[in-house]
Amino acid sequence: MKVMISKKMGKLFAIAGLSCLAISCKVNKEETKALAKLEVASNKHYFQTEDGKPFFWLGDTGWLTFGKLSREEVNQYFEDRKQKGYNVVQVMVLHSLAVKNVYGDFALTDENVSKPLVTPGNNFNNPDEYDYWDHVDYTLEVAEKNGIYLAMVPVWGTNVSSKDSKVTKADAEKYAQFLAGRYKGRTNVIWLNGGDTHGEKFMDIWNAIGSTLKTSNPDQLVTFHPFGRTDSSENYHNADWLDFNMFQSGHRTYAQDTTKGAFKEDNYKYVSRDWDLKPTKPTLDGEPSYEGIPHGLHDTLQPKWKDHDLRRYAYWSVFAGGAGFTYGNNAVMQMYHKGEKKGAYGNREIWSDALKAPGAGQMKYLKELILDHNYFERVPDETIIANQGEKYDYLAATRGADYALIYTYNGRTMSLNMGKIKGDKVDASWFNPKNGENKSIGEFKNEGVLEFDPPGEQADGNDWVLVLTSK
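Now predict its structure.
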């Protein structure tokens, strides 16, 4: 069945969203300055912009942005994320082969990835004359205006892996050529191949998409977004098209994950493993437990992951050498709207309300902390820790030549091997991941083993970063 819809009919799907087009939703392409190209830094572990400035990836999962947000809502979303310090948004281009946007515009003809439904001559700013891909273009413009890069998944993994999949290698390659051609020269595009899928399956299709995108536009970064508790490095680390690694630390608790040899909640272990791989490539957690989602996803009676859980995943993975971190929220990732019959994973919160979730506003403090110190020389260093613990007692440590950062999730006393950074003495302070405040605790000799006791009682979520700087 051919899936097409007229522009006049499409308008009926989102009348409320059209009122903004003449004013707040209009984006003047000529006034929007292109973002700097992103590249792998010379140390191969982190990112930088083309002019050599540090780029700390702070991402959000806005997976269903293209399909579920009107232009007015696109502006609202990206303006909010800019204010909260985000510089990357991860989004699906094709959530399904039958996907359409709020204006009723389908992405594909006959649900065939090789047949993008493009209407020639569409007017970028006229709601009567644009299609699905014009809406994608519009979103890219709004993201760019707000200093945000879009990390786009060409086609979500289930569309390839399902038993009745219509996606062939030839069609996938043709589709990738379309994407590469349409977004050639776009400086704020990053590609996330795959999409919550097992990397060892359908490798011919994923390699075809990845190779086509990278060969066509070598300046756009490409990675693979894998299934939960797996890592792109397991299958594609040596692929010519893969610029950096991404893992999905997942949504299950220690007790819920009974897989033999699994890293479970210890997401820093993915980073530690990737750090030592050759050739050296950046790595980051592209999908941890979402704020507001049930433990383990599917049982809605389970407790929900909270802001302090997201902080733990963020600081653990970044201090282990991660090139950044991607935050997620259950309502925002699915752009849940009032009136929808049923949200995924028990969600009932409106996406725009969830923008204000505590964890969403706390991620920027990690970014600011990392960028406040020498970015490119930073390395993970667990030898600083003299009383290392397991699970929530784990202490994460990272340092440069003249600074060290040590994170505790539960406020337990740290015993530290001093002398790991320069100087006979160090200044010490407690950094609060909840609000970014820094409180000095004095000057200490940089020798022997010293104990530091964080503020408050020991309890999960009483997290702190000890900041040591050389005198």
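The two ends are 72 Å apart (CA to CA).
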